[in-house]
Amino acid sequence: MFFVRHLKKYKQMKTVIILTLFLIAGNLFSQSQNFLWIINPEIGDTSNEALLYNLLAQVQTEDSVQSVIVTGSITINGAAANLKKAKKIFSRFPQVHFIPGNNETKASALFGTRFTDEFENSNFSFLSDSTEILGINNATNYMQGKGYFPIENIGWLTDELENVSSNQNIIIFTNRALANTINVKNFIANFYNKKLVAVFSSDFAKGSHDKLYIATLSGYSSKNETANLKIKLINISYSEISIKNISLGSKNNKWKSYKLSQTPLDISADTNTAKKNSVNIIWEIENQYTTIANPVFYNDKIIIADKSGLVSCFNIKGKKLWDYDVFGDILVSPSAADGYLAVGTAQGDITTINIKSGESLQTIGFDEAIITPLLTLDYTGNKRLMVPKTGNSKAAIIIGTESGSLYCLDMQTLEEIWHTKIITQPILIKPLLLKNKLYFTSTDGYLYCLDSRDGTLVWKTKIGKTPNSYDNECQLITDNKDIYFTTADGYVYSVNANLGQINWSKKYNAGNSIGISSDYKKIFVAGTDGRLNIIKPGNGKAYKIVATNLDRANISTIPLYDRGMFFIASPLGSVIRISKKYSYKTILNLGNAPLHAIQKIGDRTYLASNFEGKLILFKF
Predict the structure, then answer these.
(1) pTM for this one?
(2) How far apart are CA 313 and CA 568, in angstroms?
(3) Bridge partners, 247 (sequence order)
(4) Which of 45, 101, 36, 92 lies closest to 74 in space, CA to CA?
(5) Least crowded by CB within 10 Å, which of 56, 462, 560, 611?
(6) DSSP letters along 488-545, please?
(7) How far apart are CA 303 and CA 313, in angstroms?
């Protein structure tokens, strides 16, 4: 019996050894594959398109290409027409795989919604011989130069890797380099005991992620090249990767080879829990879905709306009261008034919801996406409505569409009060309401002032020092007499609210974050150089400059000023406090996802939230 039992064990071990040797031999003698890697084609730019056509024609006559991978900015502006053109241009190849770039994920391109409408997915996967090749999107507009893997993409990656064996090579394509991605640990945690052998990134990054002994390959050799179209031929085998540049008229570009590690990664998972640090956490909620819209706090209720279209309402104790699905992509913040919540979608619908019951009141549709954060106000004009109303509510909603149209609708009936179209570019910020005036900036380079009673233009003022000055999304602030904001070239502006005259403009390497103290005596501006600038509103001169360790993160939220302190939401996932004496301290960490602006909920009580749907109510 002893002999028979051990004979069976011997046969089983022999079978396993033979199978393992067979798999290894299959990998060693498998054929290499040629791929075309195209970076930043920027379809819509005529010079880029002409060069692309010539390079593609040359490649098709020179080399055998099995698949084409397109990364970086696929189009010049993320427009639907250019996405369709890109799809047509690359249709000459039997297998083409895309991941969206910076131009496809910015706000004016609906944060990637147009891309997924055309290409269905923002990630890809396919098997090349024995190598698993994955493309995962980590390009995000709201990170301003940093990469970020949305929580849904991390979930997709986890599912894709379930059926990949520890003996298979894995190659990843991304847009942002891992060294420039804030939640890289969440990404890497999926590769425990997996053979991640190479990561290709569209952008340039010096060095690689610490302690990862894998090939980290960039589409560019320097930062100065990153605006150019690049085409590379990649040959992949089990033990090495070879790359050569494709350039017009040159058939003798040299191959550069990289040996691939054959050792599975030994890594530990990232813990993404909030760490208590000088705050008292009252409750914490995890919704785990991309949530671009800011939460709404109204009548002791907290309402969040995630990108998938699910609207959820919680009471002040963190208990969920209701959910409502608007069946559309929510990309901008809702707004509440008179017991109703108004929600806009990328599909062009406006839905009003009863906040007490969670039931829909009504929905109307527009022919284009709602792209401006919603604003509610009390209408003070003379327009008489045709649809009868219950009660004496004067609440109205201001909405903006992707073509630049602005509408004022009655909150209860959704009847149009006025409609104006004075610009052709989308309004990406929430308009500022001051008395009977609406103020907003646009990418056309102007600050606008409209009469909130009828939508007529009061004045417009040219702003910015350079052509790209206007491509930012800084919220406007006011001290009830002047308007303050920043531009993309780093300037801070003060403009007279009544006349539209520029009072002053000063260079502070300003990002998208600006706030003002409750006594209107100090303006706060977060710089892209890691400094926090305290500025005098009267002349724009620096009152105080505070050095921080923000790692040059471009903060884009309005700081909360309370009890003589500023509370700042960092895009790197932390809540920062600036004390009365201007000392800097991180008081709360929500993980590795960008934050929305901190909101005051009650006495010493605040709400922190992030782009993964996490909510934390805390006292400080």
Answers:
(1) 0.89
(2) 25
(3) 250
(4) 101
(5) 462
(6) TTSEEEEEETTT--EEEEEE--EEEEEEE-TTS--EEEEETTSEEEEE-TTT--EEEE
(7) 4
The DSSP secondary structure of 458-499, one letter per residue, reads EEEEE--SSTTTT---PPPEE-SSEEEEE-TTSEEEEEETTT
Residue carrying the six token digits 């909030």: 274
CA atoms within 13 A of residue 546's CA, in its CB half-sphere: 21
Q: Which DSSP helix (H) or strand (E) runs through 337?
A: strand 335-337
CA separation for the pair 592, 614 (Å, rounded): 11
Cα 156–chain centre separation: 17
Spatial neighbors of 12 by CB under 8 A, at least 6 apart, are none
Distance CA 469, CA 61 (A): 44
Give the HSE-up count for residue 109: Cα atoms under 13 Å, Cβ half-sphere: 30
pLDDT in tens, 170-220: 999 999 888 888 898 899 999 988 999 989 998 876 554 444 556 677 776
How far apart are the C-alpha atoms of 304 and 293, rounded to whole Å?
A: 7
Give how far Cα 609 sits from Cα of 5, 292, 306, 599, 617, Å: 60, 10, 12, 9, 9
Across the beta sheet with 301-305, the strand order is: 296-298, 301-305, 310-315, 320-325
176-180, 322-326, 352-356: lowest mean pLDDT where?
176-180
Cα–Cα dist 538/522, whole Å: 9
CA distance 350 to 400: 11
pLDDT digits (tens, 9 = 90+) for 591-615: 889 999 999 999 999 999 999 999 9
Token readout for 231 is: 């085409």
Beta-carbon contacts of 547 under 8 Å, excluding residues fewer than 6 positions away, are 530, 531, 584
SS3 224: helix
Any idea which of 63-67, 76-80, 555-559, 572-576 has the lowest mean pLDDT? 63-67
Q: Could you read off the pLDDT of 563-572 as tens digits, one per residue?
A: 999 899 988 8
Provide the residue type at 216 as one letter: T
From the list 215, 153, 149, the residue with the least C-alpha distance to 183 is 149
Q: Report which DSSP code applies to 141.
A: G
What is the CB neighbour count within 10 angstroms for residue 518? 10
Q: Which two tokens stand for residue 41?
A: 């084609």
User: Please, are residues 580 and 528 in contact by the beta-carbon 8 Å criterion?
Assistant: no
Kindly state the average pLDDT of the residues 153-160. 96
Identify the burial level of 117 via C-beta atoms within 10 angstroms of its C-beta, where 0-12 means exposed, 13-18 middle and 19 or more buried: middle
SS3 state at 51: helix
